[in-house]
Amino acid sequence: MIIILKPEVDPSGPEVQQILNLIHLHGEVQTRISGVTGKERKVVEIYVIGDTSRLPDEEIQRLPGVERVVRVSKKYRLIGRHRDDLEPLGFEYNGLYFDQDSFHIFAGLCAVDTPENVEAMFRALKEAGIATSRMGAYKPRTNPYSFQGHGRKCLPWVFELAGKYGIKCIAMEVTRENHIEEIYEELERAGRPTGVMLQIGTRNAQNFELLKAVGSQDEFPVLYKRGMGITLEESLNACEYIASEGNRKIIFCLRGVKTNLGDPHRNLVDFAHVPVVKGLTRLPVCVDPTHSVGRRQLAPDGLQEIFHAAAQGVIAGANMILVEFHPRPETALCDGPQALRLEELPHFLEDMRIVREAYLARRDLARRYAGLTKEVSHGYPLSSACTV
Ligand code: PEP
Ligand code: MN
Predict the structure, then answer these.
(1) CB pairs under 8 A, 24+ apart, for 327-333?
(2) CB of residue 136 inside a 6 A radius of ligand 1
(3) What pLDDT, in 10s, does the model give residues 347-387?
């Protein structure tokens, strides 16, 4: 059960105490109070977990602090949509806003290698007006003898360079719990010149202890990548672990699924699931065209296959793109063959702008046909809420 409080109610005030007293009178349940930053206002919700069958909905609904009582289905209790009764989960991080309407492009290196390459990437992003990037310091590799990432020791100069070029958020994978602490300490030491979104890679999609670790901290948002060999339902359940520990700043990322049926691509592109995940959950949805396609290959029409896959995700309403670039892909220490070249960045951004605008136009058209709104709304203007 989720109890949504009236906007003026103080979460530590007497109205909330009254609600908690009534709940605990009727059942052995646990409660957790959580703030959700919606588009128009901050909503405070009380999550009631356990056997809620004996809780008197109507009596709770009549209490002075209560705006609404929502009975949630068993599935995806916290991240789920539950028949549109709840606010989409949006959040603000380091001056950036993420929800199911926003749009951001996180472009960068698969793995941090040299300061020169990291700087070239950040400089290109700054020139393009982009403040979001990706940089892997801890790399989970299939082969134990492959480059494993520079780890903690590269963080000071990566963060310093990010600050120099106005990068506000870097998506960075963590593969074990203490990486969170390392990132936190190095960010503090550097004077917080940038922010980090903790990435859970596909190989850790069901590493429940790691999911609990990123979920039990509230400092960093989490980019959760679907498992490449499990069902969507299993991935969503695993993602729920993050929210169940308290952190609601989550983005769900599609990155393709493993099957030979996707050959010659590295994975089978699964971006038809963008609207599915947006419908099942309240989370913003990201697409990763790089690991889906897995190769730099120009199509006969002059577009990279990665551009085409990214476009499929964006035209279906994706809220974020995670994409790999490299100044010299031939020398990259990880995933060089699938990195786009830095010179291709302006073309990619322009292409994505066209597709995003096409999506917004499609959404307006659908609203008009559904008679939901008389005015044609363009959602967020591209210039303010988006990084392109
Ligand atoms: C990555 O984005 O760096 C990565 C390793 O991706 P995935 O976990 O989707 O394979
Ligand atoms: Mn990679």
Answers:
(1) 327/116, 327/117, 327/120, 327/121, 328/117, 329/296, 331/113, 332/109, 332/110, 332/111, 332/113, 333/111, 333/113, 333/147
(2) yes
(3) 999 999 999 999 999 999 999 999 865 544 333 333 333 33
